[in-house]
Amino acid sequence: MMEKIGKYFLIVAMVALCSCAGKQSATAQSAKAVSVKRAAAQPIEQTAPKPVSMPLPGAPKHNAYNLTDAQYSVLADSVHNFVVSFDTHNDTATYMMHPNGEYTVPKGQVSFDLMKKGGLDAAFFAVYLEQGPWKNKKSLDSAYHYCKGELLSWKKYVTTKKSDVAGMAYTPADVVKLKAQGKRAVILAIENGYPLGDDVNRVDEFFKIGVRYITLSHNAANQICDGSRDWKTACWHGVSPFGYEVIERMEKLGMIVDISHVSSEALKDVLKVAKAPVIASHSACRALKPSQRRDLTDEEIKMIAANGGVVQIGTGRFFLSDDLPAHKVGVAVLANHIDHVKNLVGPQYVGLGTDFDGGGGVVGMDNAGQMKNLTVELLKRGWTIDELQMFWGGNLMRVWNKCIEVSLKLNAIKQK
After folding, report:
1. What is the pLDDT of residues 291-301, one digit of tens each?
2. Which residues pair with 330 in a beta bridge?
3. Whether 399 contacts 243, CB under 8 Å
4. pLDDT given at position 53
5. I want to staple 249 with a disulfide (CB 3.0 to 4.6 A). Which of 81, 203, 223, 342 is the partner?
6. Residues 6 or more apart from 339 whose CB is under 8 A from it?
């Protein structure tokens, strides 16, 4: 009921803003208001909309609802008050635990204060592991102990020092509860399955700590699968025998399988056996940056959508444009990638995974306090309330809940 009431007031605000824009005739204003109200009230079709021509890099200004910039800003505030918003990937935990470490990318892009300012309700805080020698037991054990220590330290920091502004979340319902309390939700993740070593039971151990997704690999091959950057020297030509065990165990636990960073062959192998939807926690579209092998092809995006998964668009400038220098890659270019997925497979298969504190950030959205700038850009392009609700969190929560549902079914079958 509260969700319906919140949406009602958001629609009213949207219609009111459109009606007072003052740049159309009274008849046109009325038609626009009715159009917006209809778009917000009707459910999204389950088929992808027809593709439209993409804006050029640096996209021209849009004004779908004929509002002023100030009015779009007010509307974006209302949207973020209403939706449950997620960022599915940042590398902030390591920086927060080791602020004096040596880093090759800008840090300090995420804090709980910045999340509040930007209207960001929840984030997956990933512990990143650089790929080491995965055939060496000592190296594997070292990665395991490091990862476990980082996860426990970060969790302790959140629960003992930041409990007034944030809390741990283990299910989508936890995130909703924390938003109602005015707190940010912290979800644990692991970037690179390297610390699992050759022991599939470590998946269970990490799940008990609170990890809710594992990115199967980083750019290079590990004991689970090949990475996207070592395609010329692939070890497995997809997923390894141990990797299939890992995927199966993750699904039995209700843990989300993340296929960002994996090779094209590995992605296809994962989707052949996946019983639950997967995510690409921080990826972009190769159609808009052909030189980047880490980005997803249109075929791969369609495969993820067919699986029921979601592509969370990353904000690393080096993933987004071949045509613009880094200092000119802004929110509009990021929105082009988001629109590309929407136009290709539908708005129910796209979201955001910034990769903040890990190389992410574009001009105009360079930290968690600037998230609403993206909402403004999408509104200007004509995104509806329903579409924004899906983009910011509805799609991800659908996937997460489905993973939990599949887990319950798999465990029920096992008990029989």
Report:
1. 998 999 999 99
2. 363
3. no
4. 35
5. 203
6. 54, 55, 381
Convert the pLDDT of each residue in 153-197 to its tens digit: 999 999 999 999 999 999 999 999 999 999 999 999 999 999 999
Q: Which helix (H) or strand (E) holds 87?
A: strand 86-90
The more confidently predicted of residues 215 and 37 is 215
For the chain, first and last CA: distance in Å? 38
Which DSSP helix (H) or strand (E) runs through 90?
strand 86-90
- Across residues 338-352, what is the average pLDDT? 98
Token pair belonging to 194:
């390297």
The Cα-based distances of 82 to 6, 65, 385, 399 in angstroms read 6, 19, 10, 20
Orientation of helix 298-306 relative to helix 264-273, angle to 10°: 20
Listing DSSP states for 31-55 in one string gives HHHHHHHHHHHSPPPSSPPPP-PPP
Instruction: Output helix, strand, coil percentages for the chain, rounded to the nearest 5.
Output: 50, 15, 35
257 three-state secondary structure: strand
Q: Three-state SS for 65? A: coil
In the DSSP assignment, the letter for residue 20 is T
- What average pLDDT does range 63-87 have in this prediction? 96
Upper half-sphere CA count for residue 25 (Cβ side, 13 Å)? 2
Q: What residues have CB less than 8 Å from 409, skipping those under 6 apart? A: none
The answer to whether 184 and 178 have CB atoms below 8 angstroms apart is yes
Task: State the virtual CA torsion across 390, 53, 14, 370 in degrees, nearest 10.
Answer: 70
H helix intervals, 162-311: 172-180, 201-209, 241-253, 264-273, 298-306
345/304 Cα distance (integer angstroms): 10
Are 122 and 353 in contact by the 8 Å Cβ rule? The answer is: no
Which tokens sit at 54?
């993409």
Measure the CA–CA gap between 347 and 49, rounded to whole angstroms.
9
Please, are residues 296 and 261 in contact by the beta-carbon 8 Å criterion?
A: no
